[in-house]
Please model this.
Amino acid sequence: MKGPSDMTTLAGKTALITGGGRGIGRAIARRLAADGARVGVHYGSNATAAKETVTAIEAAGGQAFVVHAPLGVRGDAEALWAAFDPQADGLDILVNNAGVLGDQAEIQDVTDANFDRVFAVNTRASFFVTQHGLRRLRDGGRIINIGTMLTRGSAMPASIAYAMSKGALDVLTAMLAKQLGPRGITVNTVAPGVIDTDMHEGRLVGDALTWVSSLSPMGRVGTPADVADTVAFLASADSRWVTGQWIDVSGGTLL
Model:
C-alpha cells in the first residue's frame, strides 16, 4: 500500500465511500487516502470495521473520518449527509459502493422480502445518496458506482435480483454523465467480477474456488485491491476524459 508521501494525486480532495468499512469499500478508502484524499468511511451496522479502516488510514499517515447511517430504510440519504456535513465542507469524490448480495436464488425462489431489501440498499439508497450529494459535490468532481459484471452476462441466474438492482446503477451512470458533464463531473461504473471478500464468505472454497478462478483467463479470483486501483484512476485527474462508462473489472471473465 502506497503512503500519502508517495502519492498526492488527490491532495485537497474529500471523498465519501459508502460501505467503506469492509471488503472492496475498505480497499477503496485506503487507496484514495493513500493518494492524498481525506476519506469519509461510511458504515451501516459494523462500527468496529469502519473504525478499523479509519485507524489503518491514519496509521499510514492519511486522513479519514467515520460516517454512520443505515441504508435501505426511509430517510437513509438524509441521515448519511447529516452525519457527513459537520465533518467536511463539501465533496469531490462519491463512491456508491455499499450493497448486499441477498439470498442467492433463481427467479422462482426469490421472495418479496429479499427482492425489496436488495433494491432498497443497492438501488434506492445509491440513487438518493447521489441526489442529495449533488448539492455538496464540487464542479470537477467524480461519481463512481460499484456495479457488477452480471449486468452484462447471465452465467449466474441465482444472482438475478442482485444483478437487476445493479443494472439500475448502469442507467444512473449514463444519465448522470450526460446531465453533469457541463459541471466537469464525470460519472462511471466499475463492474467487478467475483471478488474475494466476506460477501462470499464460505463460498470460495474447494471446487467452488477452482471453478470461479477458472472463469478468468488469469486463473484467479479478484481481490479488493484490483477494484480499488481502478476506482483510484477514475477518481484522479487522469480520467478527466472518461465519463458514462461501464468498466469491466472481472479479469476477463466475460471474454
User: Anything to note?
Assistant: The CA atoms of residues 20 and 29 lie 6 Å apart. Confidence is low (pLDDT under 50) at residues 1-5.
